[in-house]
Amino acid sequence: MNSRRMTTARLQVSEHRPVLRVLLVDQTVEDARRVRRLLEGETDLRLQVARDLEEARGLLADGAFDVALVDAGIWADESAGLVACLRQHRADVAVVLLTSGENEREALPALKLGAHDFVSRKNLEAIQLMTRIQGAVEESRTSRRRDTMVRWLEREARTDHLTGLYNRRAFDERLHEVCARAREANSPVTLVMLNVTGTRTVNEVHGHEAGDGMIRRASAGIVRSVRGADFAARIGGDDFGIIIADADMELGRRIARRIAHQIERLNNEEWADQIPVAVTFGVASGVGAEPADLFAAGDQQLSNHRPGPLVFAQFEDWEDNDGPSVA
Questions:
Q1: How many helices and strands in the chain, by DSSP H and E?
Q2: Domains present along the chain, CATH in parentheses
Q3: If both were cysteines, with which of 112, 118, 291, 305 could 107 make a disulfide (CB 3.0 to 4.6 Å apart)?
Q4: Which is more confidently placed, 17 or 231?
Q5: φ and ψ at 88, to 5 degrees?
Q6: Which residues pair with 118 in a beta bridge?
Q7: What is this structure's pTM?
């Protein structure tokens, strides 16, 4: 096969493979030229060269890369800041270090900073360099897929699938964290408990799908009412909890009223053709409170205010001195 046919065949194979975008960061002109010569025949690769950190910063900010070939000395030099630059602009870029020898110990300090592989400049060949580049890219992509899956599983384990809010496990974890920080800062924590009333009757008369609809609509009313810093979760079949850090009893009551008014408005407007959602509340607050004590106080307050089926939340019995305060 003549050279023209070989080139044509290579291009046809390359059509089925994605082009790898490579950034070479090397201060030595001759070394950079050598790497460029080794890779210039690779049709599946696009190479750009940066001679210093500032040039590398500019290329990383303006373009996307799959892999960075970096002089091991630059990568290991903390004062150069290339590690921080890559993590800031292109955390998904694989890194292959170019070392002066074949001793792995030479590359070890740089590898500990997050590089995926290293290759020695000594007797460097094109096929060896491409193998390391492709391997590092695949390792980086596999690691990102694994990290994404782990994050997804963690989120799934902390999410209530019916409402999309956090579940009881996530609620308990956050309540412990918030209470611990509040004890250190001697600041208050307020807990708003909410119960959707009448779901049992609705389930019996209209079926569980109708009851689930009430739960989902109640969660929508909560989401539209709480602040971004508040932590809302479904903590039981028809019970919700909202953790409010650095908040006193009055703020907790105000948020409870806001939720009630929002749900009442939605019942009359967007949900007018559906079974109305009825809710009751319990609010507890304390400075330096233990999570279990705060939760028990909020649950007791909720039980005290729990009306009969399909009765909307009432607040007229919330006097200024009413409601539990947990020491």
A1: 12, 10
A2: 3-156 (3.40.50.2300), 168-326 (3.30.70.270)
A3: 118
A4: 231
A5: -75, -45
A6: 97
A7: 0.59
